[in-house]
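PROTEIN DESIGN WORKSHEET
SECTION A - STRUCTURE
LENGTH: 315
TOKENS:
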């Protein structure tokens, strides 16, 4: 009961902290987009063929004639009702566009993150435990090489190998391509192993495992012939992996933007890329909000899991 109470308190604290951070992030993004050069009206109408009154009317309909605080306040008011506005490019509600693409990005980024953690955990565990040194050295070296390659270059290399050498990947991918989900493992591998975090995660986890293995209770468990994983999994794996998962999600999401563009993956990252090109501010604000929610949700889950494993952290 005490553990549950402490976990709930930690969850509420993280949720309140997340609400304040989301407010600051959206305010900063709103200010940046509002002061960015260019007028979104000029992308959709021929401003030279319209009179000043007609342009003023269009700007009024889009809410571009109001001050920054007024526009941000109106956006927050709509947000409180679950309305993120309407895309300037497609005319569709932002929530519809985000729902259409967001789950694809979540699937891609989540699968890539699991691959990153699996690869790094295997390489770090083999190295820290001193088992299979040749395999450990190969995995660690391969991870360092992949982390040093630009993710877009690795993506194009993977497409070339998969299409020309093994012929297991379609040349073009898109929403209407029925093979998109059959071959989604190629961008997952590129994002999971080429996002620049594999070597860092491996190094951190190996150092942490080595420190935990040097603890007295681990040496005692080894001397008694106990199952090492039973004593090691909390401090050696659960605690560092939850921290790594929360801290590396922003890197995976930023890498997803490049990977989705390279592979023509119909996700939220590609939607943000198109929205930035079109100055589609409502879509960009929606993508920033959802991405920040993903990141903060990971931190909230991390805090709850770590308090559940070690209740003293809530004190």
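SECTION B - SEQUENCE
RESIDUE ASSIGNMENT:
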């Amino acid at each position: 009961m005490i553990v549950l109470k402490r976990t709930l308190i930690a969850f509420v604290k993280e949720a309140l902290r997340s609400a304040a951070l989301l407010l600051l992030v959206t305010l900063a993004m709103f200010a940046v987009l509002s002061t960015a050069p260019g007028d979104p009206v000029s992308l959709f109408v021929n401003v030279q063929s319209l009179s000043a009154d007609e342009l003023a009317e269009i700007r009024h309909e889009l809410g571009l004639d109001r001050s920054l605080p007024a526009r941000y306040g109106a956006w927050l008011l709509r947000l409180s009702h679950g309305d993120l506005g309407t895309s300037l490019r497609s005319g569709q509600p932002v929530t519809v566009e985000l729902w259409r693409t967001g789950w694809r990005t979540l699937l891609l980024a989540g699968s890539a993150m699991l691959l990153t953690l699996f690869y790094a955990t295997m390489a770090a565990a083999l190295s820290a435990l001193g088992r299979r040194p040749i395999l450990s050295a190969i995995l660690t070296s391969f991870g360092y090489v992949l982390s040093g390659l630009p993710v877009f270059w690795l993506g194009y290399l993977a497409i070339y190998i998969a299409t020309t050498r093994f012929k297991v990947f379609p040349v073009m991918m898109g929403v209407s391509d029925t093979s998109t989900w059959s071959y989604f493992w190629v961008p997952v591998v590129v994002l999971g192993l080429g996002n620049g975090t594999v070597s860092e995660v491996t190094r951190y986890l190996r150092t942490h495992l080595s420190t935990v293995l040097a603890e007295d209770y681990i040496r005692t468990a080894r001397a008694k012939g106990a199952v090492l994983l039973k004593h090691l999994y909390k401090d050696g794996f659960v605690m560092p992996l939850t921290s790594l998962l929360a801290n590396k999600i922003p890197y995976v999401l930023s890498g997803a933007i490049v990977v989705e563009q390279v592979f023509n993956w119909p996700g939220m990252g590609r939607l943000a890329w198109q929205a930035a090109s079109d100055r589609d501010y409502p879509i960009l604000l929606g993508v920033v909000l959802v991405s920040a929610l993903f990141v903060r949700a990971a931190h909230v889950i991390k805090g709850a899991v770590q308090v559940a494993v070690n209740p003293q952290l809530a004190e």
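SECTION C - NOTES
Residues 172-179 have pLDDT under 50 and may be disordered.
The first helix runs from residue 2 to 35.
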